[in-house]
Amino acid sequence: MLDDxxxxxxxxxxxxxxxxxxxxxxxxxxxxxxxSFDVSNVSFSQCYACNDIAIWIxxxxxxxxxxxxxxxxxxxxxxxxxxxxxxSTILELSPRGAAALLRLGIQKLCAHLLGEGGRSVDxxxxxxxxxxLDARVQQALDVVRVVGNNAVHRGQIDLRDDRATAEKLFGLxxxxxxxxxxxxxxIAEMYAALPEGALKAIExxxxx
Length: 208
What we know:
Blueprint: H1 8-22, E1 42-46, E2 53-57, E3 60-63, H2 78-90, H3 95-114, H4 121-130, H5 135-152, H6 163-192, H7 196-206
């Protein structure tokens, strides 16, 4: 339909607007000339890092929807982060649902660490342990697995599976990502930055 517009500059401007609309995210236009109402007690902010927009009603951020859980580890894979964010948004209404979503995220995280999908969370943890998984991470994985599993099985719900328990699970997910993804990434980056001579000397020492 835009091809019917004779002016290329106009077509380009509309394509840019439609592309921004297709993202589903709000954005600001500085050249709007007409308005029917002034909205009060609503504010907009823009992130210095990513330029995304946040919408506030008085002192409460209503977009993007953000629960009260700790922010996810930025190194979490996107699909796991989506589960984490969804669990955060329902934490207040359904701690049990949040725990179940975190267990799903753990299942995906185990597959990510293994590089392949496993038969079950328990089997994946066992496979990771055989590969030398840090004992602290194994314990954290099992805590999330057991609590999350109990949260979705009828007759097995732990009465302690309340908001406080769910909140601890968020921390454990971040802890696992910090040890197994973030720290490994930082160490690899620092190692790769060593002088070439030092790297060759290390390889010779280790017989590689």
